[in-house]
Design a protein that fits this description.
Distance between the termini: 46 Å
CATH topology: Rossmann fold
CATH superfamily: NAD(P)-binding Rossmann-like Domain
Order of helices and strands: EHEHEHEHEHEHHHHEEH
Largest sheet: 8 strands, mixed
Strand content: 5-15%
Strand order of the largest sheet: 3-2-1-4-5-6-7-8
Structural class: alpha/beta
Helix content: 40-55%
CATH class: Alpha Beta
Shape: globular
């Protein structure tokens, strides 16, 4: 018996959410759960064709679904800023940001911005998007009850594969690491980001007077999505590995994989003492790695990221 199902969610009429990577996998299923409860949702996607097709598909399931496409590419940080500005021209409120998009165990690649692809896609782009949407999130929080505004970062149990220092500030692109080190570091970054946001704006946050925002880092479980299908951890055998594991029942369906994200983003059962925690399926607080519990490392990463983006004129 599952401890939580989306059927127990409250009515979300009047609430606005933004989900990155919303055209497929867990993001797609998350949107379905939200619009079934009458939320207004912005679907972040990099392909207009795929995004519109996904919206059409959802609206066939939920005819009154209020979904809008927001285009940006995590491998192009300038597009993140453009999308955030576009959102703020359309909406004055944002109740939930679900930083869901991600890639896993892919070959080494540098973005046009000069960062390793997993580090940028999974961590940097989401940090930047969150920061540019923060004024809207905070203004929404100031006119809402505590807990009405939340930021959810999708992470992974794979954060345990981060380099031995945790966040390797001496080699952030992990030129000396492997694809799992690079993935693990990016997912550790997602947890530390949620931790820092909670320290600033959470129920006991140093800046909560600017607006109280609850946060969580969510490990959705072993889900069979494009993330698993596109991973290259077995080289040329990788395309065969995922389907075999899926057939053996190793993976959880994406629909259920979205449960914990939805719980943390919208459930009345998510209490203020849960803010800033690491969640595992289904809707349970878990214990992440020692690096993920390191407040000093979280502060150092926040400072590095902020200074990095300010130096490049992105903040």
């Amino acid at each position: 018996m599952l401890a939580f199902t989306p059927a127990s969610l409250p009515d979300l009429s009047g609430k606005v959410y933004l989900i990155t990577g919303g055209n497929a996998g867990i993001g797609y299923e998350t949107i379905i759960h939200l619009v079934r409860k009458n939320a207004k949702v912005y679907m972040g996607a990099r392909s207009e064709t795929k995004g519109l097709a996904a919206i059409s598909s959802i609206q066939k399931l939920v005819p009154n679904a209020d979904i809008h496409l927001l285009l940006f590419d995590h491998m192009d940080l300038s597009s993140i800023i453009r999308a955030a500005k576009e959102f703020t021209t359309k909406e004055t409120r944002l109740h939930g940001l679900i930083n869901n998009a991600g890639i896993m165990a892919v070959p080494f690649e540098l973005s046009k911005d000069g960062y390793e692809s997993q580090w940028q896609t999974n961590y940097l782009a989401h940090w930047l998007l969150t920061q540019h949407l923060l004024p809207t999130l905070l203004s929404t929080a100031r006119i809402s009850p505590p807990g009405a505004v939340r930021i959810i970062n999708l992470t992974s149990g794979g954060h345990n594969y981060a380099p031995s220092p945790g966040i390797d500030f001496a080699d952030l692109n992990q030129l000396r690491g492997g694809l799992w080190n690079r993935y693990g570091q990016s997912k550790l970054g997602n947890i530390l980001h949620a931790k820092s946001l909670n320290a600033l704006y959470g129920p006991e946050g140093s800046k909560k007077d600017e607006g109280e925002i609850w946060t969580a880092a969510v490990h959705p479980g072993n889900i069979y999505t494009n993330l698993s299908k596109n991973a290259k951890f077995l080289g040329p055998l990788s395309p065969l590995f995922g389907p075999v594991l899926n057939a053996l029942g190793v993976f959880t369906p994406a629909e259920r994989g979205a449960y914990t994200s939805v719980f943390c983003a919208t459930s009345a059962e998510f209490e203020k003492g849960m803010s800033g925690e690491y969640f595992v399926p289904v809707a349970r607080i878990g214990k992440p790695s020692k690096h993920a519990r390191d407040g000093i490392m979280a502060e150092k990463l926040w400072k590095w990221t902020e200074e990095e983006f300010k130096g490049k004129g992105l903040l």
